[in-house]
Design goal:
heterodimer; A: 123 residues; alpha/beta; 5 strands; globular; B: 704 residues; five-stranded antiparallel beta sheet; 19 helices; 22 strands; elongated
C-alpha cells in the first residue's frame, strides 16, 4: 500500500519540491502551508509520516508537533523535522523526546531524503 | 693625761715617752730630790727656772699642737707604735683623738705593709728620710699621700731609741700633679690625633714641633722639618711668604689671631692641597714666644662648595627656564622669589610680587581664598604636599587662567620655613580635555550605535542565514530530480550543464552553511557542549556519512581505532563536524589510494589522525592552510571546489577544545592532519571565544 506523507512548509516551492522528490520514489504526498491546515488535513485523513518545517509563521513546527502529540487521535503519527535550522546535539535530543523520528536538514540531498523517509516508515 | 698602756707588748718600758704634761710631772718629781739637797732659800730660784721651763715647754707644746703638720715619735719596728703624736697627726689620718691614734700600729697607716718595711730599711740605713712620699691611708681606708721627714734617735750605746718625724698631707698636691699629667697627656693626644695639622713655630718662624696630621697633609716627615724655618719649605708659594711674615710681625705686636685663611699649599710631591689656616700666639709671661698654626685640609669642603655653587647655578637656571611658574613664599605667604614664567602666567612683574603677601594681590578668587588658606596652613603644619590641585588664578588684567598647583615645604631643622609653589598653566590641557570629553561622548554615541548595528548584524546572520538556505532547497532538489529522471531524453551537453548547476548550487549551500557555522561560533559559541563522548562513535559516524563520497572517487575510507579508548569531554557534534571537514578535505585532494582515520592514546590525550595518499601540500603552503578563504588551487578552473573556510572552522573548533591541529605532508605522497583531545575536561578558554568572535567580525564586517 502506498504510504501517505504530509509535508508542512510555509514556502510553496519547498512544499512542491518535497512532494515531487518523494513522489518520484513512489510515495503519496499531500502538503499543508501551516500548522492549522496540517492539523485539519490530518484529522480528515490518516498520514503515515508528517514532515514539518521548523520556522513557520503563526504556528511553529514545534508547536505543531506538540499539538499533534497532545491529540489522542493524531499522536501516533510518525513525525520528522525538515528544516534549515541547525540545532546543537542536545537540542536535537530534546526534540526527539518530543516525538520526532528524524531531523533532516535543508537543503537536502534527494537520495538522502528518500532513504531517511523510507527508514522512518519501516520503523 | 695619757695613760701609758703597758699591755702593749712590743713597747718596752724604756721607750715610754712622757708627754708634755707627764714631763711636767717628772720635772715636778725631780724637784723634791733637788729640794732635798738645796736649801729652802734657793726654792724661789728653782721656781723661777721651773717657770721659765714651763713657759718654754708651753710655747713648744702650743706650737706642736697647732701646726698643720703631723709630728710624731714612734718606735722603729716594722709594726711600729706611736710614742707621741700631735693633734694634727690624728686629724690628718681621721682619728678623733691622739689617744685613738696611739692605740694602732704604725703599719696600719700604710696601704701596703711592704712600704713600711722599705721605709724602716731606708731610714735605718741613712738615719733619716727627707720629704719621703708615702702612700698611706686614713682610718676610713681613704688613701692619703704623705710627705715624711724623719730622723732616727739612738741611745749612747748606739741602740735605736725612736724615730721623730714630721708628716705632711700632700694628697691635694699629688692630685694636682696627676691632673696636670693627665691634661698634658690629653693635650698630647689631641695634638697627635688631631684631625688638623698642628705646627708650632717660634717668632722667627722656626718649626719647633709638628703633629702626625700635618705630616699627612703636607707630605713632609716631621723629622725633616723640625728646626727648619717654614719659609725654607716649599709648602708655601714664595709669593705668599712676605704676606705670612707680615702677618707674624703684626701678630707679635698686636697679638691678633690669624683666622680661617684659605690657601693652597704645596705638598712635598708638588701636588696642591686646599687648606684653611688658623694661628694664634703662644705667650709666656705675657710675651709672645711663638705661634701655634693649625692647618686644615679643606679639599673636600672646597669640592663640596664648588658642587654647591654648580648646583645652585643649575637650580637657578632650572628655576628660570622652568615651564611652570615657581614661587617661593615664607610660611606667612609672602613672596620671597618668583621666576620669569610666573610673570607670564600671572601678568604681574616680579617686582610687583616680591615682598608682597599673596593675599594682597587678587590672584585668588575671594570665594576660594578661605579654602586655599586652610590648605596652606595644613601644608605648613603637617608637611603634606599639595599635588596636582587644580584652581583658577586671576591674572593682573582680570582674566582667569586654569592652573594646576603643586607645593612642597622647605624645612630648616625640621621646621617649615617656606613653601615652594609650582603653578602650571593648564589652559591647553583643559581645552584638550574638553575636546577629549566631547569626542569621548561622540565615541560613546558611535559605539552604542555600532553596538546596536552589531546586534542587527547578528540578527541578520541568524535570520537571513535561513533565508539564504531556503531558496537553495528547491534548486538543488529539482536539478537532481531532473538529472535522475530516466524518462527524459537529453543530450550530453545539456546533462553536463545541469550537473554544473547542481555542483555550484551544492557549493553555494556549503558556503552558506560554513558562513552560518562561523556566525554560530560568534553567537552561540558559549554553547559548546562539553560532554563525555567516545571518539570511536564520532569516527564511525563520519566514516558512515562520507563513505559514499569516498567511494565515488574509488577511495577506501578506513577507520583504525585502538580498542578501549577512554571517553573524552568534548562537543561531539562540533568534533564530528571538524573531523568531517578534514576527511572531506582529504577526499577532495586524493585521487588514488585511501584515507585513514585513526585514534590512539597519547599520554592523557587521544590523538586523532586523518591520513591520505593524496597530492600533498607544499611545505610553504602549510602555514596558510588554516587561514580563511585559503584555496589550495587558486586557478579559476580548479577541479576541487570548496569554500576555503573548512579548515579554518576546523582549527577554531579544535582550539576551542584546547587542542591543536598539526599537518604533515609530502608533495605527491599524501597528507596527515592530526589533533589531540585531552581526556579531562576541555575548557573552552575565554581567549578562544574572543579570538573566534574577532575572526567572525573580520570575516563579515568591515574592520571597525
Amino acid at each position: 500500500m502506498t504510504k501517505k506523507i504530509l509535508a508542512v512548509d510555509d514556502e510553496e516551492d519547498i512544499r512542491m519540491v518535497v512532494k515531487d522528490v518523494l513522489e518520484s520514489s513512489g510515495f503519496k504526498v499531500d502538503t499543508a502551508k501551516g500548522g492549522q491546515e496540517a492539523l485539519k488535513k490530518m484529522k480528515k485523513e490518516k498520514f503515515d509520516l508528517v514532515l514539518i518545517d521548523f520556522f513557520m509563521p503563526e504556528m511553529s513546527g514545534r508547536e505543531l508537533l506538540e499539538a499533534i502529540k497532545k491529540d489522542s487521535q493524531l499522536k501516533k503519527t510518525k513525525c520528522a523535522f525538515l528544516t534549515v535550522a541547525s540545532f546543537p546535539e542536545r537540542g536535537i535530543e530534546k526534540l526527539k523526546k518530543l516525538g520526532i523520528l528524524d531531523y533532516i536538514k535543508k537543503p537536502f540531498d534527494n537520495e538522502d531524503l528518500i532513504n531517511r523517509v523510507k527508514k522512518m516508515l519501516d520503523q | 693625761m695619757i695613760p701609758v698602756k703597758t699591755k702593749v707588748k712590743d713597747v718596752p718600758l724604756s721607750e715610754i715617752y712622757i708627754n708634755g704634761k707627764n714631763k711636767n710631772k717628772s720635772l715636778h718629781h725631780r724637784i723634791p730630790s733637788v729640794k732635798k739637797m738645796q736649801k729652802k732659800a734657793r726654792n724661789s730660784v728653782f721656781r723661777e727656772i721651773e717657770k721659765a721651763l714651763r713657759d718654754s715647754e708651753e710655747k713648744y707644746r702650743t706650737l706642736i699642737e697647732n701646726v698643720n703638720i703631723g709630728i710624731y715619735r714612734s718606735t722603729c719596728y716594722s709594726q711600729g707604735r706611736f710614742l707621741h703624736a700631735n693633734p694634727a697627726m690624728a686629724k690628718m689620718f681621721g682619728y678623733s683623738s691622739i689617744e685613738e691614734l696611739m692605740k694602732i700600729a704604725v703599719i696600719d697607716l700604710y696601704q701596703k705593709p711592704e712600704d713600711r718595711k722599705k721605709f724602716i730599711k731606708e731610714i735605718l740605713k741613712k738615719g733619716f728620710v727627707k720629704n719621703k712620699e708615702l702612700r698611706l691611708r686614713k682610718k676610713n681606708g681613704m688613701p692619703i699621700w704623705a710627705s715624711v721627714t724623719a730622723k732616727v734617735y739612738y741611745d749612747k750605746n748606739g741602740t735605736v731609741k725612736w724615730i721623730d718625724g714630721a708628716i705632711e698631707d700632700i694628697t691635694e698636691r699629688k692630685k694636682a700633679e696627676e691632673n696636670l699629667r693627665e691634661s698634658e697627656e690629653k693635650l698630647r693626644s689631641i695634638f697627635e690625633d688631631a684631625g688638623d695639622g698642628i705646627v708650632y713655630i717660634d717668632t722667627a718662624g722656626k718649626i719647633l714641633s709638628a703633629n702626625k696630621r700635618s705630616e699627612e697633609i703636607l707630605g713632609y716627615d716631621i723629622d725633616e722639618v723640625i728646626g727648619k724655618n717654614f719659609t725654607e719649605l716649599k709648602a708655601i708659594d714664595p709669593s705668599y711668604i712676605p704676606i705670612f711674615l707680615k702677618i707674624m710681625k703684626d701678630a707679635i705686636v698686636t697679638g691678633k689671631k690669624l683666622k680661617n685663611l684659605e690657601i693652597e699649599l704645596i705638598k712635598k710631591d708638588g701636588s696642591k692641597v686646599y687648606t684653611e689656616i688658623n694661628a694664634s700666639a703662644v705667650k709666656k709671661e705675657g710675651r709672645i714666644i711663638g705661634f701655634s698654626v693649625i692647618v686644615r685640609d679643606i679639599a673636600d669642603r672646597k669640592k663640596t662648595e664648588e658642587q654647591i655653587v654648580e648646583y645652585e647655578e643649575e637650580l637657578s637656571s632650572i628655576f628660570e627656564a622652568a615651564g611652570d611658574a615657581i614661587a617661593y613664599m615664607d610660611t606667612s605667604g609672602n613672596f620671597i622669589t618668583i621666576n620669569k614664567r610666573a610673570e607670564e602666567i600671572t601678568g604681574y612683574k616680579i617686582e610687583e610680587l616680591i615682598g608682597k603677601n599673596f593675599t594682597e594681590i587678587d590672584v585668588i578668587d575671594q570665594n576660594q581664598l578661605p579654602e586655599i588658606l586652610k590648605i596652606l596652613s595644613d601644608v605648613i603644619n603637617t608637611g603634606n604636599i599639595i599635588k596636582n590641585f587644580e584652581m583658577e588664578l586671576i591674572r593682573k588684567d582680570g582674566s582667569r587662567i586654569p592652573t594646576e598647583i603643586n607645593t612642597s615645604i622647605v624645612k630648616k631643622e625640621e621646621k617649615a620655613i617656606g613653601i615652594v609653589v609650582l603653578i602650571r598653566d593648564i589652559t591647553d590641557r583643559k581645552r584638550a580635555e574638553e575636546t577629549l570629553k566631547k569626542s569621548r561622548d561622540e565615541l560613546a554615541k558611535a559605539y552604542n550605535e555600532l553596538k546596536s548595528l552589531d546586534r542587527m548584524k547578528d540578527d541578520f546572520v541568524n535570520i537571513s542565514g535561513h533565508e539564504l538556505k531556503t531558496p537553495l532547497v528547491p534548486i538543488i532538489a529539482y536539478i537532481d530530480l531532473i538529472l535522475k529522471n530516466k524518462k527524459s531524453k537529453r543530450g550530453k551537453k545539456e546533462r553536463e550543464e545541469l550537473e554544473t548547476c547542481l555542483r555550484n548550487a551544492i557549493r553555494l549551500k556549503k558556503l552558506v552553511t560554513d558562513i552560518l557555522d562561523i556566525s554560530k561560533l560568534e553567537t552561540k559559541v558559549m554553547k559548546f557542549e562539553m560532554r563525555p563522548a567516545k571518539i570511536e562513535n564520532i569516527i564511525n559516524t563520519v566514516v558512515q556519512d562520507l563513505k559514499p563520497a569516498a567511494e565515488k572517487k574509488h577511495l577506501e575510507l578506513i577507520a583504525s581505532i585502538k580498542p578501549k579508548l577512554p571517553q573524552i569531554n568534548i562537543d561531539s557534534e562540533r568534533i564530528g563536524q571538524a573531523l568531517s571537514k578534514l576527511v572531506e578535505n582529504s577526499i577532495k585532494f586524493t585521487d588514488k589510494g585511501n584515507i585513514t582515520i585513526s585514534a590512539e592514546k597519547q599520554k592523557n590525550k587521544i590523538l586523532v589522525k586523518v591520513s591520505d595518499t593524496g597530492i600533498g601540500i607544499d611545505k610553504n603552503d602549510i602555514p596558510k592552510l588554516f587561514t580563511k578563504f585559503y584555496q589550495a588551487d587558486p586557478s579559476p578552473t580548479r577541479k576541487a571546489q570548496g569554500t576555503g573556510l573548512g579548515l579554518f572552522i576546523c582549527k577554531e573548533i579544535i582550539e576551542a577544545h584546547n587542542g591543536r591541529i598539526l599537518v604533515e605532508s609530502e608533495l605527491g605522497k599524501g597528507t596527515t592532519f592530526s589533533f589531540a583531545l585531552p581526556f579531562k575536561k576541555a575548557l573552552l578558554k575565554k581567549h578562544h571565544l574572543e579570538k573566534a568572535k574577532k575572526i567572525i567580525r573580520s570575516l563579515y564586517f568591515e574592520p571597525k
